[in-house]
Amino acid sequence: MFSKLISIFTGKNNVKNKQEKKVIRETKKKVQPTRIGELGEYKINIQLDQLNKKYKYISDLLIENPKSKSGYSQIDHVVFTHLGIFVIETKNYQGTIYGDRKRGTWNVNGKFKMMNPFNQNFGHIKAINSLLKNIDLSSYISIVSFSRRCIFKVNEELRKIHSNDLIVYDTELTDYINRKLNVLKLQPQLNSFTDEEILVMFNKLNEKNILDPEIRQKHIELINEVKSEESNGNIIYSATCATCGQKVSEKVENYCLTNKEKFKNKIYCFDHQR
What we know:
The protein is an alpha/beta fold. The protein has helices at residues 2-29, 36-49, 117-132, 173-184, 195-208, 213-230, 250-258, 260-263, and strands at 56-64, 72-80, 85-91, 95-99, 105-108, 112-115, 140-146, 150-154, 165-169.
């Protein structure tokens, strides 16, 4: 009788433990995959918040750029420091990134091509500099940030701190910026900025930042049209999932962009639309 009571009690506990584990698993499932892209940007902002409080940064900047095919440039992050201006492009890919600074295209997972992100970011730098004016281009540091879901197979110079073109993981962004600033301190011949000059540049870009949602949506639509037109050439501009980096069909891309409220102007593959 006593052994039966023990087995009944133990059985109830096992059921209870299984139920608790099930609740935990169900709770984890409630994290929406469609928010992973936004969470990635949030992680970058947390990194930037750790920088010296005298520095200023702007995220998700949209400015006019007559030289762009859409008429605008959308820049993920711009950081103003006393020794340089960091322009940061973030990428949401998964897998192995193959690339070289001198090549026009890079390869992702050996399956499809992407534009050289440093060429793209240089276009952003030129657009910013056209507004700020009188800033030497040597004062800009171009950074391309990937998540830890990627492995870099790129030329070594892009990982060396003396370079003004740096490829980094999102979790090491603050470290790379601070290390780069320490290197710049040893080069007094370069331009430096006062607190007042940093504030002037920061305010200038903030004034030019286009926040109108209709214009922002139009920019995305124009960019996607350009990608569609150029996909017939040698370079493949395939739309990719913001969560896993996999290519998606034009039908899936249009579906995501049409459902603005659900997907927040981002593209997700079928598995990550739930």
